[in-house]
Amino acid sequence: MESIYLVIVVFLLILAVFDLFVGVSNDAVNFLNSAIGAKVAKFRTVLIVASFGVVIGAVMSAGMMDVARHGIINPSNFSFNECMTIFLAVMITDVIVLDVFNTLGLPTSTTVSLVFELLGGTFVLALLKMGANPNLGFNDLLNSDKALSVIIAIFVSVAIAFFFGTIVQWISRLIFTFNYTKHLRYTVAVFGAIAFTTLAYFIFIQGLAKSPYISEFYKQWIKNNTTVIMLGIFLGSSIFVEVLHLLKVNVFKIIVLVGTFALAMAFSGNDLVNFIGVPLAGLSSFQDFIANGLGHDKTFMMTSLMESAKTPAPYLMMAGIIMIISMATSKKAQNVVKTSVDLSRQDEGEEMFGSSRAARSIVRAAQDIGESVAGVIPKKAQDWIESRFNKDDAIIAHGAAFDMIRAAVNLVLSSILIIIGTNYKMPLSTTYVTFMVAMGASLADHAWSRESAVFRVTGVISVIGGWFITAGVAFAICAIVCILMHFGGFVAMFLFMALDVFLLLHSNIKYGKKVKEEKKDDIFRLMMRTRDPEIVWDLLTKYVSRTQSFVARFALDQYNSILGGLRDENLRDLRRCSRELKDERDKLKKFRRKELLALRRTPKKIALERNTWFHLGANSDQQFIYCLTRMLEPVKEHIDNNFTPLPIEYSEEFEPIRREIEGLMKNSEHMISTNRYDQYDQVLAEADNLKNQMSALRKHHIDRMQNDGDDSKLEVSLVYLNILQESQEFLSIMRHQLRAAKKFMEK
What we know:
The protein has 747 residues and is an all-alpha fold. Helices cover 79% and strands 0% of the residues. It is found in: Membrane. Pfam families: PHO4 (PF01384).
């Protein structure tokens, strides 16, 4: 029996490593998004700074491990077997839930995941134990107050962080403007002093002063002299910042990097328990059972877990190193960071989220409120405020999503709110605070224009909704896994362990394919980052050419699939065509918006000249999809109803035309993709001639339908007639697309 539990403990420790990877992939956004979004330094430099914070925070986090041991569960009333069942269910659920959110690119809270997984597993076993022993109550088995405080913290932290993020950033921008280098003479010292004092308080008072490695004498000294220490830091840092400014050093870079270090340290110190707390609690339980349990796994109670954890420093250091490796290598970490940065970027660009009814209602209400407020403010005051928010003067590093003022506000304000929450014993989530501060700051910075507001709001709603879903999903899944393990015993435990490994491998393989697809859109990101209109135009022509040539190939493939599905009565292929046409229609909407955003950044003269041809080409791409859909639906319905198959004579008479259409489409696609239109006139002439042939064939078929008295062929004859009509339209669309592409690309 001991050997079986040893395998479970080893698996828990292995899952702890996986959990560190997926957990850091999710939570790296908390302290990396500001520095990366503002491009204050190279990515490697930001990682090095964050790494120091992570390692120090990890070593200082030994006291936080008690949350997993007895923060939710009351282990003195649970047996060793029951505790190991709960711990295993929590880790299996945690890795899967976090990996799903990372794959979707949505930041979520590891704190909420851990608390509600522990709550779900404990809750379901508590019900069984209370049924067997009526003398036990919920308060004897679990700490429901902890879960309730987390739920309250979700509501409070989301609203407060967004509100103060908006207000503080608006005031900061009013003071510094987007051209902040012109307004630093008298303000940079005060701003820098506040920032450094806040961060110093965050690092030393809330970090080092609570470390188990600091003696009680120094802890008490720091506590008694906190006010004097902070006042000294404020005065010293104000002088230091002013000197740096006079020496023409960019103070905001230093503030952002120090803030990155502080938040990384806080994240590691507070959230490390979310990743390794449960496995270490399992290891401690196993050690106690081996020493004192005498093999009675179902009667030996885990009273030892009520004691405070004594986590060895090497374990903490190893966890910190794994977290650093995860930050540096995880593509999913970069994806989660990308979500937060994209939702708060200053410029227009690709929107990761679509439009929702809730977002449209919120944006419309916000516009109405804004118009009402504007009616009260004097015109001169409005003009002065608008002059302070002139985005044309923005000083943003090449490739950055926003400037250093916003990055500094994000980090400093997040630190302040976390400090306040800690002092009031409010279990704030670093994810909630940092994300919502970033969203509020981007709103105050006018980053959400009327063109993008509805998409950004949808994104924020999606992320916030994901946070709430996390709690419910974590609770429910862990409860189900736990109850199945409880009744299924070791067999169920090992089956879930195997399932966990399979899901992780499958998820990573699937995510790798997704990353390869996203790399294809590098041209668009480059167009949105460059400031040279001529370069944008050159890149746009390549981007449009690639889109249109792909649509031409895609349309031809689907056209042949529809005809083949009708000929072979292959319903599966027809259904696949239907799904692919729908997906492509949605993708084309996104492509068109991206191309239109890029067209606005090209030289104005060129944009005006080519605007008509751009829209004609984009319309042609969409018309291909509509035409194929009109062709597909009658065919799919015909085959699905098992009606009369397509007569061989119909198939044979249309085959030469199908081959000619295929040849013309391939020639057209080749000209668009290579931007060489040497056969342009010839292809148009052949297309006109082929359309005339199809008109004659269509007339012949109508006459055949009128003269043929066989009613059994009526349905298939109508389907064939529809194919002839839509094939003519298909050729017309090809001509429009080719013409638009040539006119748009020509120099």
